[in-house]
UniProtKB/TrEMBL annotation:
Domain of life of the native organism: Bacteria
Species name: Microvirga arabica
Sequence ranges assigned to domain Peptidase S54 rhomboid in this UniProt record: 96-255
Keywords associated with the record: Hydrolase, Membrane, Protease, Transmembrane, Transmembrane helix
Lineage: Bacteria, Pseudomonadati, Pseudomonadota, Alphaproteobacteria, Hyphomicrobiales
UniProt key word DNA-binding: no
Name of this chain's protein: Rhomboid family intramembrane serine protease
Topological relation to the membrane, as annotated: Multi-pass membrane protein
GO BP terms in the entry: proteolysis
EC id: 3.4.21.-
Subcellular localization: Membrane
Pfam families: Rhomboid (PF01694)
Length: 271
């Protein structure tokens, strides 16, 4: 027998079970949709996506006529555009469907859309789960998704096109992770350097002085600007709902200190 026992192979993707489950659900839903007819998939999108105009009519003071009048601008009176037909169909029953503030996050417009969100979910959701556990992770994801949908609807109250994607929830995870991912490493009681998810949460004062945090936030905002307003080289196959990204990000930034089980870093560090 060899004097050196064989080393156990580390898995390439050492993801928490909760994250793996989320990835299976997101990718699985998109794969199943490919088996549906165009009509069935259209109905699924309409029923479970965020459509701001639907909320504006059901819960706000906007009338269906106001939305239709806006869509008729510049169009001949006897002409019905595809967008007008969609608005008539969506607003016919004046149902609010408030649950779509969550369900829209399970739907995506393309394989590129769902795979990109899955990569970011794995990258930023993993440290959140390891730090906070599954229950607080789901609370953070849900609140971020709802906040993303809310801000998008607030800034686009007459929009009749559906908004889908987990980007708002993922943005909330990014913001939450920024509280501790770039905190200084320290020695763990086991005699090793602490992992990012084990480090004390930064205070706001520390964050604004942490160059890595500022660079991370700068890149995040710049990327959202570029893909929302510039759309470089046709890399996107649909418009980017930057409002949903921003809403989810702000929700994650505000909520995380309230659910973080670990204490914040001391405000003063002795030399």
């Amino acid at each position: 027998m060899s004097p050196h026992p064989p080393r156990a192979r580390e898995p390439i993707l050492n993801l928490p079970a909760v994250i793996s489950l989320c990835l299976v659900v997101l990718i699985g839903i998109h794969a199943v949709r490919l088996l549906l007819s165009d009509e069935s998939d259209f109905m699924l999108i309409i029923d479970w996506s965020v459509i701001p105009a639907r909320w504006s009519v059901a819960f706000g003071s906007i009338q269906v006529e106001d939305i239709m009048r806006t869509l008729r601008e510049g169009v001949a009176e006897d002409t019905i555009t595809p967008l007008m037909a969609l608005a008539q169909y969506v607003l016919e029953g004046q149902e609010g469907r408030p649950w779509t503030a969550l369900t829209y996050a399970f739907l995506h417009g393309s394989w590129a859309h769902v795979l990109i969100n899955s990569v970011w979910l794995a990258a930023f959701g993993t440290p959140i789960v390891r730090r906070c556990g599954a229950q607080r992770f789901f609370v953070l994801v849900a609140v971020s998704a709802v906040a993303g949908a809310g801000l998008y609807a607030l800034m686009n109250p007459l929009q009749v096109l559906p908004m889908i994607g987990a980007s708002g929830a993922v943005s909330g995870l990014m913001a939450a992770a920024s509280w501790f991912m770039f905190a200084p490493a320290s020695w763990h009681w086991e005699g090793r350097l602490t992992q990012p998810h084990e480090r004390p949460r930064e205070t706001l004062g520390h964050m604004v002085r942490n160059r890595q945090v500022l660079i991370f936030l700068g890149i995040w905002f710049a990327a959202n600007y570029v893909f929302a307003f510039v759309e470089p080289l046709g890399l996107t196959d649909a418009s980017i709902a930057w409002e949903a990204h921003l809403g989810g990000f702000l929700a994650g930034l505000v909520l995380f200190p309230l659910i973080d089980p670990l204490p914040a870093r001391a405000k003063r560090i002795s030399a």
